[in-house]
UniProtKB/TrEMBL annotation:
SUPFAM superfamilies: Xylose isomerase-like. The lineage of its organism: Bacteria, Pseudomonadati, Bacteroidota, Sphingobacteriia, Sphingobacteriales. It comes from Pedobacter panaciterrae. This is Twin-arginine translocation signal domain-containing protein. It comes from the Bacteria.
Length: 312
């Protein structure tokens, strides 16, 4: 009898969870007023290779099969073979590309020089013009003046090349928290953002309801979104389809909705990277390190949900 009860509870819980996944997504996709888009509005979804175990060609093939328009990857640096493999796969599978650029050096001048080298190569490559470049800019412990040099350089480079260049709201980087980002926004009118607001949820240990004015200012500068969902205790919920994260999902959708509405009204391109990451972003079971959810499936789910929500 004890075994039967345990089996009943297990199967009932599994069935209940499975039954909740899709309806939540369907409901979320409908909870937005219709906004007529002006000519020029375009929605591109990008796939991340973060955590993908296969080759570049396999990654691009799968991204194309799932319905992504492009991919976002780190610029391969001086690795000629990696560059060849990447651009061959992009051409073969008909995909757009956005590049990540950054630096890791602790000394500001050395860091900036490495950043410039990567950015110059990514924007000036002779194979395929990127849709955008997303920057992991500076460090949270650099001074305002040291970090501003990254903005000054990307502003100049974007005007020279015609490639949009964005700075990501990322922990450990220049725009690691909301009030610091606001200071940069107010003093640098050409600054454009990649919004990964999940980082700010962690830094401020909240869903940012007490910083609405600052968040609204930031949303006006967003041109690219990393659609990972965070919460007050972490940068990634374990599975956005699970009902316990309904509040976090709705908060992120409300922020993204404002960006999309502005893009539609202006008739501008909008790019979205589905960026739920692998372990240790994705939680695992202790000892076995077995992931508690399927990273790739979650990202495809987010793409389909947001495409339905933000289509013309």
């Amino acid at each position: 009898m004890h075994q039967n009860r345990r089996h009943f509870l297990k199967t009932t819980a599994t069935a209940t969870a499975a039954g909740l996944l899709i309806p939540l997504g369907e409901i979320a996709a409908q909870e937005i007023p219709y906004v007529k888009a002006k000519a020029g509005y375009e929605l591109l979804f990008m796939a991340t290779d973060w955590g993908f175990p296969g080759t570049t060609d396999e990654f691009c093939a799968l991204a194309k099969k799932e319905g992504y328009e492009g991919i976002e990857v780190w610029w391969p640096g001086d690795d000629a073979k990696a560059q060849e493999n990447l651009f061959t796969a992009l051409k073969k599978h008909g995909l757009q590309v956005g590049f990540l650029c950054g630096g890791s050096q602790s000394e500001p001048a050395v860091h900036l020089n490495a950043f410039k080298k990567n950015l110059d190569a990514a924007t000036g490559n002779s194979f395929q013009k990127p849709v955008y470049v997303n920057c992991h800019s500076g460090k949270d412990y650099f001074t305002y003046e040291e970090n501003k040099l990254f903005i000054d350089y990307t502003t100049k480079k974007s005007k020279e090349t015609g490639v949009p260049i964005y700075h990501e709201t990322h922990r450990g980087r220049m725009l690691f928290c909301a009030p610091i980002a606001r200071n940069f926004i107010e003093k640098n009118p050409d600054l454009r953002l990649t919004l990964d607001i999940s980082h700010w949820c962690v830094v401020h240990e909240s869903l940012l309801a007490d910083q609405k004015a600052t968040i609204d200012i930031a949303l006006e500068r967003v041109s690219h979104i990393h659609s990972r969902v965070g919460h007050p205790q972490g940068a990634q919920v374990n599975d956005p389809r699970a009902p316990e994260w309904d509040g976090a999902i709705k908060a992120h959708l409300a922020w993204w909705d404002k960006v999309i509405e502005r893009k539609k009204l202006k008739g501008e391109r909008m790019t979205i990277l589905t960026e739920f990451g692998p372990p240790d972003y994705l939680q695992t079971l202790p000892y076995t390190r077995q992931p508690v959810a399927d990273q790739w499936a979650i990202n495809v789910y987010m793409m389909n949900l947001l495409r339905k929500r933000y289509q013309l």
